[in-house]
Amino acid sequence: MEDTIGWGILGLGNIARSFARDLRLVKGGKLVAAASRNLEKAHAFQSEFPSEFAFGSYEELLRCEAVDVVYIATPHTSHAALSIQAMEHGKHVLCEKPMGVNAAEVEAMTACARKNGVFLMEALWSRFNPSILKVKELVESGAIGELKYLHATFGFYALDRDPTGRLLNPALAGGSLLDIGIYPAFLAYLMLGNPDRVLSSAITRENGVDLQTGMIFEYPESQALLFSGLSARTEMRAELAGTKGNLYLEPRWHETNAYTLVKDGTRTTVDLPTVGKGYSHEIEEVHQCLQAGAPESSRWSLKNSLDLIRLLDTVREQQKLKFPFEE
């Protein structure tokens, strides 16, 4: 691996823009190519985020020898196919969450990464957020005793959005669960592991996508109460309650810049600002893994991604949330 890692971006929407801004802040990497199915859009992106190449097809980027690792920022339904295509071209891949829309896709992606000997990671950027890292460390050290209760939500109003767009369109794996419900589910999994039982309830739209979903993850001696929704805005302050104290991830918790510890009658808030918006931290993880020759991240492994999508699959099965392309 060269000292400077060359990045290519597939899919040039708002998330790609945030990622490209943060890539500028990370040493050891540079944007060398951007691709859209619309060449004019690729050139517009290139003018905003300078790169050596701008392509009007994804295949052209995947054949570009200057690209070491591909960031896939397309809608959910193309994550698996494009990741596999990239890995078959020998490219390392950072794929936006959810890595696949179901466990079968994630299993296929994992098998492809191993077959081709390339790096693959789900771009679950919250896993590398400084405050979330610190809160996990505090929980594991017993700072709040035994963790008994976790509460996390992710909700905003989106019913005025384009019904053909990715949030509300079942053909694009729309709905709250895969787009934002993955975050509360991730936090419970990160802090408590795989639950013994999953309980869920969903309110769906006429076209079958979930507008809001409530989940309870049950553990032997603790519970996680989780929610995602596109019908109303939630505070998005996550709470972790233990036998000796409480921890809070301040709003918006999935991209937070601070956490609060409440213990022995004392409340202490610690600021841990992200670098840029926060995508920088997952980029650094990719760089470290590639420089070390690691096939996957030890902090967010392929097994972790598979565990998480299986939890979301369980919720979808319970609520009969099936997408048209899965029929």
Question: Can you walk me through this structure?
Answer:
The protein has nine helices and 14 strands. With 327 residues, it is α/β, with parallel strands linked by helices. Helix 5 links the parallel strand 5 and strand 6. The radius of gyration is 20 Å and the shape is globular. The chain starts with a strand and ends in an 8-residue tail after the last helix.
Features:
327 residues; alpha/beta; Rossmann fold; Dihydrodipicolinate Reductase, domain 2; 2 domains; 8-stranded mixed beta sheet; 6-stranded parallel beta sheet; 9 helices
Q: State the secondary-structure class.
A: alpha/beta
Helix content: 25-40%
Give me the CATH fold name of the largest domain. Dihydrodipicolinate Reductase, domain 2
Alpha-carbon distance between the two ends: 42 Å
The tally of helices reads 9
Radius of gyration: 20 Å
Instruction: Report the count of strand segments.
Output: 14
Number of domains: 2
Q: What's the main sheet like?
A: 8 strands, mixed
Principal-axis shape equals globular
Q: Mind telling me the CATH superfamily name of the largest domain? A: Dihydrodipicolinate Reductase, domain 2
What top-tier CATH class of the largest domain fits best?
Alpha Beta
H and E string: EHEHEHEHEHEHEHEEEEEEEHH
Low-confidence stretches: none
Strand order of the largest sheet: 8-9-10-7-11-12-13-14
User: What's the average pLDDT?
Assistant: 97
Any guess at the CATH architecture of the largest domain? 2-Layer Sandwich
DSSP strand content: 25-35%
